[in-house]
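Action item from last meeting closed. Structure (94 res):
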């Protein structure tokens, strides 16, 4: 049974800043693998809710960096493992 990970960031309350997240002191980085050398799926900053992230396989690496002088509340997330359904195509028969 092949699985992937579904994580939902229910609340994200980090230091507010520009929308690009490039120069933010507080960020959440999500990688599609076992370490930060895996491909990045997303980078979160500022505020948000109900943000869903799906891995392509059974591993997901999350890095939370909080080094700003202006504290935020952080984040709340939940995760679950999902079976990866085989892709089927329904072709009409004639």
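Sequence:
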């Amino acid at each position: 049974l092949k699985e992937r990970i579904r994580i939902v960031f229910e609340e994200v309350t980090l230091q507010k800043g520009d929308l690009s997240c490039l120069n933010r002191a507080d960020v959440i980085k999500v990688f599609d693998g076992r370490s930060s050398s895996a491909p990045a799926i997303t980078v979160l900053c500022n505020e948000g809710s109900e943000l869903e992230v799906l891995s392509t396989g059974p591993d997901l690496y999350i890095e939370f960096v909080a080094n700003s002088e202006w504290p935020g509340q952080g984040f709340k997330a939940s995760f679950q493992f999902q079976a990866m359904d085989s892709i089927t195509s329904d072709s009409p028969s004639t």
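Note appended to the action item: DSSP finds no helices and six strands in the chain.
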